[in-house]
Amino acid sequence: MCQLLGMNCNVPTDICFSFTGFRARGGLTDHHRDGWGIAFFEGKGVRVFLDPAPSAHSPVAELVKHYPIRSLNVIAHIRKATQGEVRLENTHPFQRELWGRYWIFAHNGNLKHFTPPLSGRFLPVGTTDSEHAFCHILDALATRFPQGRPAAAELHAALRELACEIGSLGEFNFLLSDGDWLFAHCSSRLSYIIRQAPFTIAHLSDEDLALDFNQVTQPQDRVAIIATTALTDNERWIAIPPGNLLAFHDGMPVALGETRTIAQDFPRPPSDA
Fold first, then answer.
1. Which pLDDT tens digit goes with each residue over 15-35?
2. Could you confirm whether 16 is annotated as catalytic?
């Protein structure tokens, strides 16, 4: 399966530590060798780095690893191809504009025979089921809310319905952000951790690297990290129950209503927490 990584914070934060362990899964500690990408929100803008090469050996990934871009919302993806060739246009995360803001999306799973009709406003450039799903989601949101971006609770409810619909056709773990909120849907496997005071030392699972967050944070800082599997081996990660859509804001999950989706439940591997 592909690997997902997301970050949502209450103050602009860099993701260098988590990304160091994450990128190792693209051909070093795991077999996801079919490309990688990462997107950082900065105000209304987005920096996107994509490479169809394995992240563990990518010069672009090496640049990102040492480039402390500070952002409130970040989404990264390491690909193991199921649909679509290993090409740049099929590399996640994908980016589109809706309601005058950028949206970023990355998917882990396989949606078989998923070809819903699209209005033409959002069209896939590549040939993945993931990009088609993203275009379908934005199409549905644009149709449902023609006057513009709705309140967060309404948006969450609409996304939950779409997760139910699309998730019934296959495994549909995804991360979606508009630079304000980060939505995380778990179909089979997804976990998160909230780092806040009192901060501790974290040690990566995929690299022999530790970081004392007391040295790089302020007492008011709060950061949520979401990943397919735990990135550290000395912290307690919270497994998201399969078939749930969570919303993160200011570095923590926020209750916006019912989270349960009726997406098909896939067998869940043992917890990595």
1. 999 999 888 887 667 666 678
2. no
